[in-house]
Amino acid sequence: MDLASIFPTVFQIFDLAGVVVAGTLGGMVAREMRLDIVGFLALAVMSALGGGMIRDTLLQMGPPVALTNPYYLPGAFTGAIFAFFLTLSGKWWNRFLLVADAFVLGAWTATGVVKTLEGGFGILPAILMGTVTAVGGGMIRDVAVGRIPSIFGGNTLYATASVIASAPAIILWYLGYPTIATAASTLVAGAIAITARRYRWSLPVNDDYSLRKSIRRMHDRAKAKPRFLKVRHAPAGAGYGRRRFGSVIGHGSGRGHGRVRGAGRDAGHEAGREAGPAQQEGFEATSAGTPGGPGAAAGGTPNGPSNGSPSDS
């Protein structure tokens, strides 16, 4: 028994498990919206089978598989019952549903791609139908409860993962390996969706973006002078004060500053030498004209003893 013979059976089991998981996710939305059992069943069917119904209706290749396969509707109802009677919350439940939904996304992408190519359609219709098969049910569910579909923004990569996973499915189908195409698409979409959820990868949203505004902003930036070319003028007197301050207390660096400081010392010494004789002359003149000073004994002041005074006679 080779892989090609057992893979269809394995894929059918995995596909049916995906229907149950998608139905459970629809039931969890119904629990969040506080709906009754009818709401649970309806949202479970929309979430699990809506994408395939849209695909089969557009391709017109017979009645929708959701109506001909005897296990699909019971699988969706099973998921709704799980969500109705069980509180599926907590870290491990969330992780399990996240991983399972990511790989189901890839499996349903491959199903839509392969079925479209087998119907004789081209590459772009195959990508479209693969994406619709994978995310169409969740989109219908969100619209039914009055929400903006999560694939339209504000969520991690999901529909994008489906589009990317369409590439290996198309290539391998054209190479004649439809079984490997399904497996490759399942793995690629699952890996991208899980990694995007782990690292919060998402597409940018349009926050009032305008191409005209962007071009005008780029033009204004090109006309503006770069900051490193702008010359900043100091206030009046700031440069003189800085140079004087630097010469007194020694701010600055390099030999130039050393010359300024050394030149100041030399000028001070020279001024001291020139002022020395003048100060000495002034001191002597002052002493000679002072009563009782040293010059009185030598110069014959009226009160001091001298050779020509009347007392000697």
Task: Give a written overview of the molecule.
The chain has a domain at 3-199. The chain is built from twelve helices and no strands. It is globular. By secondary structure, it is mainly α. The chain has helices spanning 3-32, 37-59, 65-68, 72-85, 91-118, 123-144, 159-174, 178-199, 211-223, 238-249, 255-288, 294-299.
Please tag this protein with its features.
single chain; 313 residues; mainly alpha; disordered C terminus
Please give a quick description of this structure.
The chain has helices spanning 3-32, 37-59, 65-68, 72-85, 91-118, 123-144, 159-174, 178-199, 211-223, 238-249, 255-288, 294-299.
Total DSSP helices:
12
Poorly predicted residue ranges:
241-265, 278-313
Please count the beta strands (DSSP E, at least 2 residues each): 0
Largest sheet properties: none
User: What coarse outline follows from CA principal-axis ratios?
Assistant: globular
C-alpha end-to-end distance: 162 Å
List the helices and strands and how they pair.
Layout: H1 3-32, H2 37-59, H3 65-68, H4 72-85, H5 91-118, H6 123-144, H7 159-174, H8 178-199, H9 211-223, H10 238-249, H11 255-288, H12 294-299
Helix pairs in contact: 1-2, 1-4, 1-5, 2-4, 2-6, 5-6, 5-7, 5-8, 6-7, 7-8
